[in-house]
Amino acid sequence: MHTFFPLIALALASLSLVQGKSLILTHAHKAAVKHSAGLARDLRVAFGGILATQPSSSSNQNFYCVGSDGEGVTMPPSGNSSSSPTVKGNATSTGMAAPSSTSVASSSWKVADSYSGQTFFNGWGFFTAADPTDGNVQYVSQSTAQSAGLIEINSDGNAVMRVETTPQVQTNRQSVRITTQATFNGGLVVMDAVHMPTGCGTWPAFWTNGPNWPAGGEIDIIEGVNNYTNNQATIHTNPGCILPSTTSASLNMSGTLVASTDCSASQTGNQGCGIRSNSSNSFGSGFNGIGGGVYAMLWDNSGIKVYFFPRGSIPSDISAGAPQPQNWPAPMADWPSTDCNPYQYFNTHSAIFDTTLCGDWASAVWTGTGVPGQDVSCAQQTGFSTCSAFVQASGGSFSEACKFRILSMFYPTSLTVTTDWEVSSVVIYQNTS
């Protein structure tokens, strides 16, 4: 706090040389009580050209954030270990760019189901059972989520899903988990998001799942915990699904195998075959800092692939709604059909969003370091010895007004704690060729 406000004062002093200082101050004050991404955008515009350099982050600086409920949390800036041990059983607020006037070749992939805009939540079921991953959350119905302000379609037309921010709870916080009512066997799932949950205690995921887990298979498209910045895509199957190689080059992918080539849930302690992105903007604060991007999961006779396209690098065929995956670069993750028939080990999938807190993975690595984005353990950052203790006592840190996005202008590596998904669209295609 004490480092941040002198920088604001310095910037405003410089602004006194130009017309409109009072208007900027007034606007900034009003914006401060609104969505912090909007505040960050307004201040970037207001301070543009004045803050020529950004001070580097420091390990001994503390930041204070006041949540919308008035609860304050003091935390030091950020700095785990291995892959997920279990299965789940802004720069901008706009989604994919509108199709350009440049002609795009026709595609054999046709829309089967589409979710966006004011009707985004139509066609999703709200999961209300206990969290299968033992997280500190209680998933709630659509009516409860609406009345509690946990879901909305924001002014940008994006779907927002949040976690409860009550200052203190005795057990679990309310959260949202949604599942498409439509199912599919094979296809192309394209998801555009501008923001995802991140920070100590969070475990967000976008994934697809079949019946009678793991018999129907599971495909984790986006997943990670705490302050991780590199996405991990994973498949979980019945015994018999094997990766033919451990090397990225042999698998024709840009990501890196985390552990086992055996994708069986039962034989790997539920870890499956995890592949970690080499991109630090593919998950968490890195993803949010670039305004997100597009993830695509391709499931066809060749196997299963996951692609990531950062904002500004989304193929024009995706933006035009005429995907041409055969022309895309190598995927982030690839599980070829060589020793894993994708229609034998995967069937009747639905797409799922969820945000759990703590749970089997985030809790297990609470004191860990060594994974991209997690240079300092969450135990050290928060001062809490366990994930559940932090989550139960620190509701203000999960407040929408407490995203620390404003700090990213000055401290790109500062601790970010935010529990909202902001999704522009999900489109599920089927190949008609």
UniProtKB/TrEMBL annotation:
InterPro entries found in the cross-reference section: Beta-glucanase-like (IPR000757), ConA-like_dom_sf (IPR013320), Glycosyl_Hydrlase_16 (IPR050546)
Biased composition, class Polar residues, residue ranges: 77-95
CDD domains in alphabetical order: GH16_fungal_Lam16A_glucanase (cd02181)
Keywords (A to Z) from UniProt: Glycosidase, Hydrolase, Signal
Region Disordered, annotated ranges: 74-101
UniProt signal peptide: 1-20
PROSITE patterns: GH16_2 (PS51762)
Metal-binding as UniProt keyword: no
Any GO molecular function: hydrolase activity, hydrolyzing O-glycosyl compounds
Residues of the GH16 domain: 107-370
Any one Gene Ontology BP term: glucan catabolic process
PANTHER family xrefs: GLYCOSIDASE C21B10.07-RELATED, GLYCOSYL HYDROLASE-RELATED
Membership in a protein family: Belongs to the glycosyl hydrolase 16 family.
Name of the protein in question: Glycoside hydrolase family 16 protein
